[in-house]
Amino acid sequence: MGKAQEQSPLIEGHEAKEASPPENANVTHHLTVPKLRQYNWWIQMVIFSLLVLSGQSAATLLGRLYFDKGAKSKWMATLVQTAGFPILIPFLFVSPTKDGIAQSNQTKPPSTLILVSLYTFLGVFLAAYSMLYTIGLEYLPVSTYSLICASQLGFNAIFSYFLNAQKFTPFIVNSLFLLTISSTLLVFSNDDSGDSNKTSKGKYVIGFMCTIAASAGYALNLSITQLAFRKILKKETFRVVMNVIIYQSLVATCVILVGLFTSGEWRNLRREVKEYELGNVSYVMNLVWTAVTWQVFSIGAIGLIFKVSSLFSNVISTLGLPIVPVLAVFIFQDKMTGVKVVAMLLAIWGFASYIYQHYLDDLESKPESRIVNDISVVERA
């Protein structure tokens, strides 16, 4: 018995040593959770970015193909940019909502009147700059059009400064300067002898101005959407993102349909289908896939807004800058002039300048997040 009693402290000590690993495992678990969340965040960024790049490039090329093969309805070309929203409705029934429960309990949800006003404003705004994009795409070579669209990054930086408290750094200022010069150079590139569409100087100027205005409108819409997430919606869930896309697209579609019937263009649609160079089926498929790809782009863009910022969403959109002009050379035989090449290189330089600033911000935030994680681990241990 005595030996048994003497051995009991050793047994207890041995049991204590055996019990210690779960505590270490608990600490290790708390250390790995932030890493898993970080990996999950980067995976989401890659998915959203791929949606933006693929959707934007495909939709732009299909839109140019629509006009290039004989179609002329601006309202129809604008309608397909927003009318594809019904394909997103099923996501409302399968989207996760657990991550928004805590926030919804702590904050009062906005009233129906406020939500209707917000979606109506965003929808009307979406319809307006979508029409401007259509005019630009009809009157400009697709390569020139895509390069001008890079100016939306500069506009977004300016709007984000006033609406989203975005700070200006030397790299961001350099990015804005380069993108401005890049777009300005294209004013002097109206040598369309090798481009897919031949337009007069007057239409070229109209297309240029409409594309600039559309880029500014799109950038402003992104900043307003980010502001709405922070000030009005106050939740960053997948379901809220779907609501924003669907309801603003619904309003925009209704506005564009009114324009289609008011303008009288609907009377020419039957003849347009018959005269389409690729045939009736290709006409319909062009409209259907244009609508789908624009919704793919919308999901990626809005996802990047609430995961990072509207400016970052626009940066990823600008990343697709070299894709469309290069593809246009092979698909539409657009001429890649020296001015366009310089404009594209400047735009890519401007994009890289902003990305480097984002990299510096990420490095600066890591020590702070590491300290917070260490404190939380110590408190839980």
From TrEMBL:
GO terms for molecular function: purine nucleobase transmembrane transporter activity; purine nucleoside transmembrane transporter activity. It comes from Ilex paraguariensis. This is Probable purine permease. Residues 1-26 are annotated as: Disordered. Its main location: membrane. Keywords: Membrane, Transmembrane, Transmembrane helix, Transport. It is a multi-pass membrane protein. InterPro entries: PUP_plant. It holds the Pfam family PUNUT. GO terms for cellular component: membrane. The keyword Transmembrane applies. The chain crosses the membrane at residues 41-63, 75-93, 113-135, 142-162, 168-188, 204-224, 244-262, 283-306, 312-332, 339-356. It is found in: Membrane. It comes from the Eukaryota. The keyword Magnesium does not apply. Belongs to the purine permeases (TC 2.A.7.14) family.
